[in-house]
TrEMBL record:
Localization: Cell membrane
InterPro entries: TMEM206
Annotated source species: Catharus ustulatus (Russet-backed thrush)
Region feature Disordered, mapped onto this chain: 1-42
Transmembrane segments: 65-86, 304-328
Top-rank lineage group of the source organism: Eukaryota
Principal location: membrane
GO MF terms, alphabetically ordered: chloride channel activity
Phylogenetic classification of the source organism: Eukaryota, Metazoa, Chordata, Craniata, Vertebrata
Ranges of Basic and acidic residues composition bias in the record: 16-27
Pfam families linked: TMEM206
Gene that this polypeptide is encoded by: PACC1
CC annotations in GO: cell surface; chloride channel complex; plasma membrane
Catalytic function, reaction form: chloride(in) = chloride(out)
UniProt-recorded name of the protein: Proton-activated chloride channel
Coiled-coil blocks: none
Length: 350
């Protein structure tokens, strides 16, 4: 009995070997199918996705290009901010070097009475009166001595430019009340002259009271003649002088005073019966307006504005630098992720 069982198993084994040797290709195809199934299990559908690799690459490229454009924009903004800092500092230094002239006007009802210094030479003062509201009454006995109702003083001093010639000056107190349009009307008479043209010099200074209270009046007048300009009025005319006061503040804090004048001249019609060879001089002094003009140099550069502007610019610089740094990090991260996906796809293909 045992012998028939051994012979039967041997017969089955030989039949199997013959079947395998007759169909070897079918076995290989089965093994390849098993391998493909195993590979499909290694790379899940979530890694490959439903999009193609070329579409994924184009999206990543667009993101990188957009990041580079943003980076260049913020670099450009940083360059503009640096230029603004330089320009702001340059403008501030320029304004410090070149201050701007500022003009202000102060209204007054009464001026400090100015001093009027006349240098009549051989001429003689005939009359001096104060009138109001631009009204001058008709002349009575022109060429004859009249009333002198003005405050006057006479002084002799040496010429400040030559220090040799003695000069004679007649100092008259000028008008004060600008609201009532106060004026001073003076009449001079020159008997004879050997000159071709006849004129009287005069000089304006800021305060008649300062002259009166000065202990050294000669020195005071020499200083005034050195500091102020002198003018002339001619004989045979009525010269109307309208004054305005200009004060200038210097950098050291001192203040200088200057007079501006508007002059109108009217011919005098001599109605005296007998022809004469003498000359009559008429002059009127009046304030032009109730405004004292003050001129001073001011620096328009404000350091606090510049500091605030610089703080804003530097803050923008720091923000732009921080954004640029984050943009670079984001680009590097995207690049690494793209390389990682590329390696995974390459490994899958291999």
């Amino acid at each position: 009995m045992p012998k028939p069982e051994v012979s039967a198993s041997y017969q089955e084994l030989s039949e199997d070997v013959e079947r395998v040797s007759e169909n070897p290709t079918e076995e290989r195809e089965g093994e390849m199918e098993v391998n493909e199934d195993s590979n499909s299990v290694i790379l899940p559908d979530g890694e490959l996705g439903t999009t193609t690799p070329s579409l994924r690459f184009s999206k990543t490229c667009l993101k990188n290009v957009f990041s580079v454009i943003l980076l260049f924009i913020y670099l450009l903004l940083m360059a503009v901010a640096v230029f603004l800092v330089y320009q702001t500092i340059s403008d501030f230094r320029e304004k410090l070097k070149h201050p701007v002239m500022s003009v202000t006007y102060k209204e007054v009802s009464l001026y400090d009475a100015p001093g009027i210094a006349f240098y009549p030479g051989k001429a003689r003062l005939l009359s001096c009166k104060h009138h109001y509201y631009d009204h001058i009454p008709p002349l009575i006995n022109p060429g004859q001595p009249g009333d002198i109702e003005c405050t006057t003083q006479r002084i002799n001093y040496t010429d400040p430019f030559t220090n040799q010639t003695m000069k004679y000056a007649l100092i008259v107190q000028g008008p004060r009340d600008v609201k009532k349009r106060e004026l001073v009307f003076l009449q001079f008479h020159l008997n004879e002259t050997d000159q071709d043209f006849s004129a009287i010099d005069y000089l304006l200074f800021s305060s008649f009271q300062e002259f009166v209270s000065s202990p050294e009046k000669a020195k005071f007048m020499k200083d005034c003649e050195s500091s102020y300009s002198s003018w002339k009025f001619s004989g045979g005319f009525r010269t109307w002088v309208k004054m305005s006061l200009v004060k200038t503040k210097e950098e050291d804090g001192s203040e200088t005073v200057e007079f501006k004048q508007e002059t109108s001249v009217v011919n005098y019609i001599d109605q005296r019966t007998k022809p004469r060879s003498d000359q009559l001089f008429f002059v009127v002094f009046e304030w032009k307006d109730p405004f004292i003009q003050t001129v001073q140099d001011i620096i328009t550069a404000n350091p606090w504005n510049m500091i605030a502007l610089l703080c804003g610019i530097f803050l923008a610089l720091f923000k732009a630098a921080d954004f640029a740094k984050l943009s670079v990090k984001w680009m590097i991260k995207i690049r690494r992720r793209h390389l990682k996906r590329t390696r995974q796809v390459t490994n899958h293909i291999s």
